[in-house]
Amino acid sequence: MRSLVRSSVAVFGAGALTLLPSIAIAAENNLKSNDFVGISFWLISMALVASTVFFFIERDRVNAKWKTSLTVSGLVTLVAAVHYFYMRDVWVTTGETPTVYRYIDWLITVPLLMVEFFLILAAITKVPTGVFWRLLVGTTLMLVFGYLGEAKYIPANIGFFVGTFFWLVVLWEIFKGEASRISSAEASPAVQSAFKLMRNIVTFGWAIYPIGYYLGYMSSGGVDANTLNIIYNLADVLNKIAFGLIIWHVAVTESEA
Ligand SMILES: *C/C=C(C)/C=C/C=C(C)/C=C/C1=C(C)CCCC1(C)C
Hints:
- It is a single chain.
- This protein is mainly α.
- It has helices at about 1-30, 35-60, 65-95, 100-120, 130-150, 155-175, 180-185, 190-220, 225-255.
- The chain has one domain: Rhodopsin 7-helix transmembrane proteins (Rhopdopsin 7-helix transmembrane proteins, Up-down Bundle).
- Helix 2 packs parallel to helix 9 (about 225-255) and helix 8 runs antiparallel to helix 9.
- The protein starts with a helix and ends with a helix.
- Retinal binds near residues 110, 146 and 210.
- The site of retinal (RET) has 20 residues, from helix 4, helix 5, helix 6, helix 8 and helix 9.
């Protein structure tokens, strides 16, 4: 009961904080009924707030060793929700792509998502810290080069190729490296199936971003800013909310087993 009160206070405090910046701006610049990018920013920001509340409250249902995984899922959606409020306002007010907010969001949430692989394995066995560092550093460098390319500090194609190289480093770790070996040798069936699902999200769900980047910056018949933002937004639903739900599911299954 006490922890329920504690997590509810945290959730509502966080929710109130995230809402503050946007109330003022949104009141002056109304969302237009045909601004589908703006509408997608709005819908997804609400879904992220709801997911945050859900993950934090559901922590009470799972065993101690699974709580950190749910905390991290909730942090991912909380950080993303706050950035979505800002991105929505930039978009609705100026019609410009909020690249810098997008990347600050990714820079925090993507390494956290990666750490989830380490955490679900660490909940069941001893995992060398090298696994943690390879996942963390690989994703960070992937994003740094993507940002340098999108913000035009380096040519778009160099940002793309170097960023993709580091994504492949991460994929190698979870398909062929130590993380993968530990999962198949030591994990329970529920953890193994969560690991595989998460791995597929990092392959197919994450592929949506470099495809969007390629279409937005590198191909001549590519897509406009509207389409690129919609692509990134929908990808976030899969890669942040659905990914968190997979972890929630394995945490509940293992706790009740
Ligand atoms: C919640 C946000 C997520 C999961 C964002 C993931 C972003 C990527 C997987 C971005 C990948 C990119 C490359 C592989 C190449 C360079 C360009 C990027 C940064 C778009």
